[in-house]
Amino acid sequence: MNKKLIFVLLLIVIIGVSTTFLLKGNKNSDFLSTDIYSMNTIIQIKISGRDKEAATEAIINEIYFLNGKFDDFSQVSDVSRINNNAGKNPVKVDKATIDIISKAIDCYKITNGAFNISIAPISELWGFKENVYKVPSESEIKQTLNFVNMNDIIILGDKVLLKKIEEAIDLGGVAKGYTLDKIKEILPNYNLKSVIINMGGNILIYGDPERSSWLIGIKNPRGDGIIGKITIKGSKFISTSGDYERFFIENGKRYCHIIDPSTGYPSDKIISVTVISEKGYFGDALSTAFFVLGKEKSLELAKTLNVEIIGFDENLTPFSTERIKKDLSFEEG
């Protein structure tokens, strides 16, 4: 079995986005490495195999296409048009937008509301959309929570409507994972050996489970270097949510960008959680939901949903699902 130790953090830290996982680089010259900027992060694509150039081009085209539909910073995207027409008119959108919103609604139900794409008005209130941070008053939060309601997202065939004028959706908690799913769907069309895509905290590793094993370092969420290692075989999606990705500190308290939809305040039950799953969109949404739910509820739900998780509480004490413990070790370095 060919065990690869990969490293894909690199440029991600330059723009202030850090993934829990450090995939440390193999020196195999067969890999074609390409970096692009999309989905508000630097995306690293590493591919080996005969059709690596053609596959890289197809992957980039897919990323740009989906970003064009989901990017709420673009006024012509499907998401922006939905938000701009909230309380007014249903908006005709691409089938991919219908699909991802439908999947987000399913994840909302599965997580008992911990994952919620209608959280956008609260995120904007805290300044996380424009990175102009502030701690809102209780009355501001209470008022804005009136516009956080997944039941007000109405899908009408190929159209989407938000019921109230001040409502808005944000697909940031699911778009990268969904995009990686779509990328994985096209990979069998090419003659490839291995694929590694790091999309700002969401990673796809793709390869023959009989020939490929990935040794992955777990980044210390409160410092430099790694805090552990895990071995993963074959093709998997890895998604991380942490309070070190986007945050601000006021009066000695850390406020991160992951909002608890039930309170309107940034969640602080744990500091990092990573999901290893078979579906990118699912792991992406679950990492957000688990961060909101905290250790005990996350472990219970992960077992029910048949996904693996690794997390850290505020004391940097690790926790994980049982099945993954045999492939997991913790060591600072």
Describe the model.
With 333 residues, the chain is of the alpha+beta class. The protein folds into two domains: 2-68 and 190-330, T-fold (Roll); 74-162, T-fold. The protein is 28% helix and 27% strand. The protein has helices at residues 52-70, 78-84, 95-110, 120-125, 138-144, 175-186, 280-293, 295-305, and strands at residues 2-5, 21-22, 32-38, 41-48, 91-92, 153-156, 159-162, 194-199, 202-207, 212-219, 226-233, 236-242, 247-250, 253-256, 272-277, 308-312, 318-320, 328-330. Helix 1 (52-70) runs antiparallel to helix 6 (175-186) and helix 6 (175-186) packs antiparallel against helix 7 (280-293). The longest helix is centred in the N-terminal third of the chain and has 19 residues, at 52-70. Mean pLDDT is 89; it is low at 1-28.
- Report the total helices: 8
Strand line-up in the sheet with most strands: 3-4-8-9-12-15-16-17
Q: For this structure, what is the CATH class of the largest domain?
A: Alpha Beta
End-to-end Cα distance, whole Å, is: 26 Å
CATH architecture of the largest domain: Roll
Calculate the mean pLDDT score and round it.
89
Unreliable segments of 5+ consecutive residues: 1-28
**Biggest sheet, in brief?**
8 strands, antiparallel
> Into which percent range does the helicity of residues fall?
25-40%
Rg of Cα set:
19 Å
CATH superfamily of the largest domain: ApbE-like domains
- Specify the structural class: alpha+beta
**CATH fold naming of the largest domain:** T-fold
- Percentage of residues in DSSP E strands: 25-35%
Tally of individual domains: 2
Q: Which series of helices and strands comes N to C? A: EEEEHHEHHHEEHEEEEEEEEHHEEE
